[in-house]
Design brief:
iron, single chain, 353 residues, 4Fe4S_Fe_S_CS, 16 helices, 2 domains, two-stranded parallel sheet, 11% strand, cytoplasm, 10 strands, alpha+beta, elongated
Length: 353
């Protein structure tokens, strides 16, 4: 007897919500219309040093090539907004370190992956063995395109997914499955209208056109993905943002509706929502590893952590304590750190040689 796939799809959504996902949708695997845009983005070099973007090529738009046998994609959304010090208050206090709100708690990769695995196993208990693979920002997947096709929102001009009742403060995850599940209605309406707040707010002008981001100028890329030196001309524009950037989201009118998450794993750890630049710069490598265990921030490593904070200190108001913090790292073993410390000292009128 044929399975009632429609009924199963509804139960999958129920199970997903029981596991803490705020929304669950199902899409097909036909992403062909997204290939031209992806190729143009790569051809323009907007991916910067993220070589894996080009290496995987069109696999990102072809789920059945990434996971052979895939027939449907289960897409999930999980809110991450938590009670934290007001983001604007941290931005205006140049002595504090701004860390993207999504990274204040536990590493979302782990949280989502575990929940997705639980959902996949719940499906297996219902249908028996089947082919699947879970993703949580961990492989070449066009997450926003898939989520939009699954009816979870629309792509904003900043390229993130938006939803009228949730804004954009959420994570996305997927299960590629070889199950012929019915597909949800794609989100067609775009409610950005003539608004250009995100484009206007970007500190470095990384949103080069609506729905197009040059990662090479994006502060999130510069402080997280970039492994080499941060371009000199962009350092003053970074301000006190030492891990990621939320400016394009903070100014978005739809994020007035962003909901607080009940997920305790996303709660603020180590006072990262209001820590000072000097305080974080003084951590030794052991403290960095220990305090940020289980955090997404730990992925960039201690060297880039110091690199980023050195830039923040270079943009901070000149004071004896700021200068002392930088002087203490002047002779750091890492050439990358030394160069950024030297730049920061010059910003304060100090010779760095």
């Amino acid at each position: 007897m044929d399975k009632d796939w429609s009924s199963l799809a509804e139960r999958i959504k129920d199970w997903g919500r029981e596991l803490g996902f705020d929304a669950v949708g199902i899409s097909g695997i036909g992403l062909g219309t997204a290939e031209a845009g992806l190729q143009a983005w790569l051809d323009a070099g907007y991916h910067g040093e993220m070589d894996y973007m080009a290496r995987h090529g069109m696999k990102r738009a072809r789920p059945a090539e990434l996971v052979p046998g895939t027939l449907s994609v289960i897409s999930v959304r999980m809110n991450y907004k938590t009670k934290a010090r007001d983001a604007d208050a941290v931005h205006v206090d140049a002595n504090r370190a701004y860390i993207s709100r999504y990274a204040l708690g536990r590493d979302y990769h782990k949280v989502l992956r575990n929940r997705l695995q639980s959902l996949a196993e719940r499906i297996r208990a219902e249908v028996g063995e089947y082919g699947y693979r879970v993703f949580a920002d961990s492989a070449p997947v066009l997450e926003v395109e898939i989520a939009q096709r699954a009816g979870l929102g629309w792509r904003g001009k900043h390229t993130l997914l938006l939803h009228r009742e949730a804004g954009s403060c959420f994570f996305l995850g997927e299960i590629f499955a070889n199950l012929p599940l019915p597909h949800d209605k794609q989100q067609i309406n775009n409610y950005c209208g003539s608004c250009s707040a995100c484009i206007d707010a970007c500190p470095t002008g990384a949103i080069v056109a609506p729905y197009q981001v040059d990662a090479r100028r994006c502060i999130s890329y510069l402080t997280i993905e970039l492994k080499s030196a941060i371009p000199l001309e962009l350092r003053p524009l970074i301000g006190n943002r030492v891990y990621g950037c939320d400016d394009c989201q903070l100014c978005c009118p739809w994020n007035r509706f962003a909901r607080l998450t009940p997920e305790e794993d996303f709660s603020v750890r180590n006072g990262l929502d209001a820590a000072t630049l000097e305080e974080l710069f003084q951590w030794n490598e052991h403290e960095f590893e220990q305090r940020l265990a289980g955090s997404a921030i730990r992925r960039i490593g201690y060297e880039r952590w110091l690199r980023n904070i050195a830039v923040g200190l270079g943009n901070a108001p000149t004071s004896a304590s700021v200068l002392a913090a930088l002087e203490a790292r002047r002779d750091h073993p890492s050439a990358l750190v030394r160069e950024h410390v030297a730049w920061a000292l010059r910003q304060h009128g100090r010779r760095a040689d």
